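[job 0417] fold request received: Thiol-disulfide isomerase or thioredoxin
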Amino acid sequence: MKKIFPILLGGCLLAAGQSSGQAKISQDSLTRYYSRLAKGNDADQQLLTQKMYALTKSKKEADWLTAARFFYQLKKNNVGDSIQKAAAVHFPTGFAARNNAVQVIYDETDPVKKEALYKAWIKKFPQDKQNKDVIIYDYARNNVGMAYAEADNLPKALEYAHSIVSLFWKGQGWVGTANRILKHGHTAEAKALLKMAIEDAYTFRTTRKHEEGAGFAAVGYPGYLSSYAQLLFNDKEYDSALVYLKRAEEAETPVRPEVNQMYAKILLAKGDYPQAFTRLSEVAAAGKLNPGSKAMLAEAYAKVRGDNHLEKYIDSLKGGLDDKMKAEFAKQIIKEPAPGFTLKDVDGNTVSLADYKGKTVVLDFWATWCGPCKASFPAMKKAMEKYKNDPNVKFLFVHTWEKEENATASAKKFITGNNYPFQVLMDLKDPATGVNKVVDSYKVRGIPTKFVIDGKGNIRFRFTGFSGGDDAAVAEVSAMVTLANQ
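[job 0417] inference complete; emitting structure tokens
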């Protein structure tokens, strides 16, 4: 799998190509100046374009990479890509060349060969003594360690896991190794790595929360706790597992579905059916049941209620869900003109947003490589089924940020292979700029992102991600469609 790296400047932003007066501007001030030009009017952006082309005449690579960076901000991705490619050739031992050369490590599958390639790469591009851009080296080291973990070479896997330098990334690296060595039955070693990750993330949530990268380092904390509790559950250490799940519950609101599911699983294993029943009923009332949690609710229901009316019980719990969602989303309604677009669908048909004037449109940006996007599709299918007889509601699924050469064929194969009745539009990269124009015009920063557009062409709702639970997702869409039409 190709590893994509950001433009890394090694801590340098240069003033080459500037006048002597401008050369005195601090690096931070110069960057802020460029950023202001990038967000300015046409004249500002033309001036920035001139300055960035001037930087490509510099003898310092960091100037070239600064130019590439700001061409990306100007939506001239093809120019930025060309500058990066040229920099790799012009500066054969520089940042761009280093980032390109590391790809051979990721492409190799044999761990021994991969390690040899890593050692050759780090010899040619030695790590800076001040650990600038150290994450690039950590990614490469971790990739070698993962290969050894997959091959069940435990000593080597642990060696590389403990070689991670970036403080904010240690926990994630340890958990990745733990997950892989677990496949080979190394539970004790996996537990140790997970325990380290938990305590590391906890410190970044508390005593180290002001350090650089603290937010990233801390974000995995609830998930690490849940994974550790699963291992304790597997070893029948139920009471200890509950201690860690309690910490996971206290760490975030709302509680993630896997925490609730693991909690219920332990309660059932302990024979505490009433508490399991109560907890799972709360999950059902929130519309967050999945096949696993529903099966556990059925088990608890049979013990507590002793009848065969489970589906009626679940429906009764969801009775207030629609009203709750309406009340919640009424606070989030917006009114912004929806950017128009014309795209081809996967069958070659031309589709425009203007075709649906007067209708409510649910617009879903997704990609085949996006796990949460695909996880939301069963719920989106149910939402479509709810409105199948309503000609005034239209669902459009826009595939964007493609990573494959034949993205259209890939998207069509996925949709048809899973029997999704979706109309999929292709937001392909513009040949002139390298930008996916539609997703860019909607200012999407992550997918899945969905929009609800009213009949007058205004965006009324924007929401990103998928929290799990088909019933909740359908209720969310239903609430937004209803509110958009009012």
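[job 0417] notes: The radius of gyration is 26 Å. The first strand starts at residue 336 and ends at 337.
[job 0417] exit 0
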